[in-house]
Design a protein that fits this description.
Layout lengths: L12 H27 L7 H36 L16 H13 L2 H18 L2 H19 L3 H19 L4 E3 H19 L3 E7 L4 H6 L1 E3 L3 H13 L6 E9 L3 E8 L6 H11 L16 H14 L4 E7 L3 E9 L9
């Protein structure tokens, strides 16, 4: 006995469509047959004439609920995916398109796996670092030359600034790790702030605090590289630079059962309600395009950091921003507690 494989796969819409057309053709032939018999008086009862019509009606109902409705759900899922919603396995539907499509879906899930994406990004970053390694070395050597010259002239401030700038660029350019200890990220942020103080002087101050004595554990937690510095830079450029009087930056770090919460607060000029809602909308959208936000408004750095966090850890983590005009802005960063580096896995 020949086994028809596709008859054993009724969950696929493709199989249901084939069955639908076969049964439709069969019922049409039966209907024509009964019409022929009725025309020549072979059948006098209306029962045999209306029976095929009733079966056709049942077949239409079957096709609507088992083919058309699942197809509409499948199409809606594709529209959500195309509009930028989080990827979901299409084969998880009760009525996937076909077996081949399920295999394609599984392959797509593998390609979109965050570990694979980050591995590709890391290799690309390493390649670019090797390709441009002369530029960082030239920069470091130049800064070291300026620092040495400043020291020989007794200018300690210029020497210190060159050292801080060299350290900042070395951290930013030379290392391509995905995750770094919070201690390193704070050190880099402090270097950046130290450089900015040469410009602003006593107008600008920054405080770092650890809530409930969590400093020792928190400093070991690994977070995405360049998470804090871009947010601090955004606060200075778009919040504190235009402020009259002294500007204050507060970085509060707090540990929960499964989350690290970092808040960066400033007492700058803040944002109006319309601008804040636009930024919040972009932060809530996965893979938000930075070009959708005017660079003069600030916030591009926030979108960049938010996208990278979501790529690494998922939609549950990222940035949340609150702000009041003329009062300041709070940026809350939610991260998982991760002690192991992605390079160690």
């Amino acid at each position: 006995m020949v086994k028809v494989k596709w008859l054993k796969e009724p969950k696929y819409i493709e199989t249901r469509i084939i069955l639908f057309f076969i049964l439709s053709l069969f019922l049409v032939l039966i209907t024509l047959f009964f019409v022929f018999l009725s025309h020549f008086g072979r059948i006098k009862s209306d029962f045999w004439f209306f029976l095929p019509l009733a079966l056709i009606l049942l077949l239409i109902i079957y096709g609507y609920y088992n083919i058309f409705v699942p197809y509409k759900k499948f199409k809606h899922l594709l529209q959500l995916f195309n509009s930028g919603q989080t990827y979901s396995h299409f084969s998880d539907l009760k009525n996937p398109l076909s077996k081949d499509y399920v295999e394609l879906d599984n392959r797509l899930a593998q390609i979109l796996d965050s570990d694979i994406l980050m591995s590709v990004s890391k290799r690309q970053a390493q390649y670019l670092a090797l390709q441009n390694q002369i530029n960082p070395h030239f920069l470091y050597n130049t800064l070291e030359g300026i620092r040495s010259e400043a020291l020989s002239e007794g200018n300690i401030s210029i020497s210190s600034m060159c050292e801080a700038l060299a350290t900042f660029f070395r951290y930013t350019i030379s290392h391509v790790q995905n995750l770094v200890p919070l201690s390193q990220e704070l050190e880099n942020t402090q270097n950046y702030f130290y450089i900015q103080q040469y410009r602003f002087g006593e107008r600008l101050s920054m405080e770092i605090s650890f809530i409930d004595g969590c400093k020792e554990d928190a400093l070991r937690i690994r977070i995405p590289k360049l998470t804090l510095q871009p947010i601090v830079e955004n606060a200075i450029v778009h919040g504190l630079e235009c402020k009259k009087g002294k500007g204050l930056l507060l970085i509060n770090i707090e540990l929960f059962d499964s989350r690290l919460l970092i808040s960066v607060k400033d007492n700058g000029v803040g944002m109006d309600e319309e601008k804040l809602k636009k930024l919040q909308r972009l932060l809530s959208k996965e893979g938000a395009d930075q070009q959708d936000y005017n660079s003069n408004e600030g916030g591009i750095a926030l979108i960049n950091v938010n996208n990278r966090i979501k790529i690494l850890f998922g939609e549950r983590f990222g940035l949340n921003v609150t702000s009041c005009k003329d009062l300041g802005t709070d940026v809350n960063i939610s991260l998982p507690i991760e002690y192991k580096s992605s390079e160690d896995s």
